[in-house]
Amino acid sequence: INNEKPELEDGVAITDPENTYGGYEYTLSQLVEGYTVVEAKEETVCGYDAYRVTYEGKIAGSDYRIMQLTIARIQGNKTIIYEFTYTSTPEFFEENLESVETMISSFGVKE
């Protein structure tokens, strides 16, 4: 385990609540080598503001395309964040995206 807290040079922090990697925050560039953003957009999911980003890069030496969808919901005085991540090799990303979109569209939140 690397016990040095990494610098957040690219502004994207990934937390590690299970303490698998020493409990620190890691930046996207530290986990996905040479990543490039393919698409980034704001949208609405289930009536809530959401942000979708798709990027490509290497994880453990293999190429991957990753889509992350973050939904922010304000409830009283707190914000609740839901995050969906779909990871695939680039050649199968589009093939399985329809199933992922179906799962996302079925997402619901109890008030």
3D structure, described in words:
With about 110 residues, the chain is of the alpha+beta class. Helices cover about 20% and strands about 50% of the residues. The chain contains two helices and six strands. The strands form two sheets. It has a four-stranded antiparallel β-sheet. A hairpin with a 2-residue loop joins strand 3 and strand 4. The longest helix is centred in the C-terminal third of the chain and has 16 residues. The chain is globular and about 45 Å long. The N terminus is likely disordered.
Output the strand order for the largest sheet.
3-4-5-6
Count the DSSP helices: 2
Number of strands: 6
First-to-last CA distance: 40 Å
**Rg from C-alpha positions?**
16 Å
Shape: globular
- Structural class by helix and strand composition: alpha+beta
User: Main beta sheet, described?
Assistant: 4 strands, antiparallel
* Uncertain residue ranges: 1-13, 19-24
Round the mean pLDDT to the nearest integer and report it.
Answer: 77
Helix content: 10-25%
Order of helices and strands: EEHEEEEH
Essential attributes:
alpha+beta, 6 strands, 4-stranded antiparallel β-sheet
Short description:
The chain is an alpha+beta fold and 111 residues long. 18% of the residues lie in helices and 49% in strands.
Topology:
Elements: E1 13-14, E2 26-27, H1 28-31, E3 33-45, E4 48-59, E5 62-75, E6 78-88, H2 90-105
Antiparallel strand pairs: 1-2, 3-4, 4-5, 5-6
